[in-house]
Amino acid sequence: MSIKKLPTLTFNTGEYVVYPTHGVGKVADITKQNIAGSELEMLVVNFDKDKMTLRIPTTKLQHVGLRKISDEKTMNEAFATLQGKPKIKKLMWSRRAQEYENKINSGNPVAIAEVVRDLHRTDNLAEQSYSERQIYEQAINRLASEVSIFSDCSIEEANQKLLDVLAK
Predict the structure, then answer these.
(1) What's residue 113's pLDDT?
(2) Exposed e or buried b for every residue in 48-61, given b needs 16+ CB within 10 A?
(3) How far, in Å, CA of 17 to CA of 70, rounded?
(4) How far apart are alpha carbons 168 and 149 in whole angstroms?
(5) In the chain, is it the N or the C terminus that has fewer CB atoms within a 10 Å radius of its CB?
(6) Which tens digit of pLDDT belongs to each residue from 53-82?
(7) Strand arrangement, sheet containing 52-57
(8) Distance between CA 72 and CA 49 in Å, rounded?
(9) Is the pLDDT of residue 6 over 80?
(10) Is-contact 82 113, C-beta < 8 A?
């Protein structure tokens, strides 16, 4: 059995990155910190929307799933997913909600687009339950934040792009 060597990720200060469970953040700094007697190199990521800062040891970047903003191929796949037909499973809501949360927290734009597509309601938003609406908002906001960085536009413009794609 051979051990697969994962490619090492390199991030630069000022670069936007995606942390799967928190969304898009900006690399503020790469510093060395002394913790429990050993020196660790840390990547400092700021999430302005949540007013949160994460310090991630550079040796754990692969493990936590930190990644660069998606490429054009992945974004096109996410937009194609949004245009697809919603797939509503006949599971209990609690199971579906758990699946949706897992997809959102995966950080994968295509999986998040599936959640947005499946929970999007065009004509009557009143038919959505509160928890359904919350998950939908979380998914569309997470996707819009990545689309805004990818397309170099504001969050509002990215949100409108997503809604335009869903309306087709």
Answers:
(1) 93
(2) eeeeeebebebeeb
(3) 9
(4) 23
(5) N
(6) 999 988 888 888 888 998 999 999 999 999
(7) 52-57, 38-47, 23-35, 16-19, 67-68
(8) 24
(9) no
(10) yes
For tokens 């994460």, name the residue.
54
Residue 148 contacts residue 154 (beta carbons within 8 Å) = yes
Question: Which tokens hold the place of 145?
Answer: 């934040």
Token representation of residue 8: 């090492």
Q: What is the 3-state secondary structure (H, E, C) of the chain?
A: CCCCCCCCCCCCCCCEEEECCCEEEEEEEEEEEEECCEEEEEEEEEECCCCEEEEEEHHHHHHHCCEECCCHHHHHHHHHHHHCCCCCCCCCHHHHHHHHHHHHHHCCHHHHHHHHHHHCCCCCHHHCCHHHHHHHHHHHHHHHHHHHHHHCCCHHHHHHHHHHHHHC
Burial 8-47 (b: 16+ CB within 10 A, else e): eeebeeeebbbbeebbbbebeeeeeeeeeeeebebbbbeb
Residue type, 78: A
Distance in angstroms (rounded) separating the CA atoms of residues 95 and 20: 21
Please state, rounded to an integer, the average pLDDT across all residues of the chain. 86
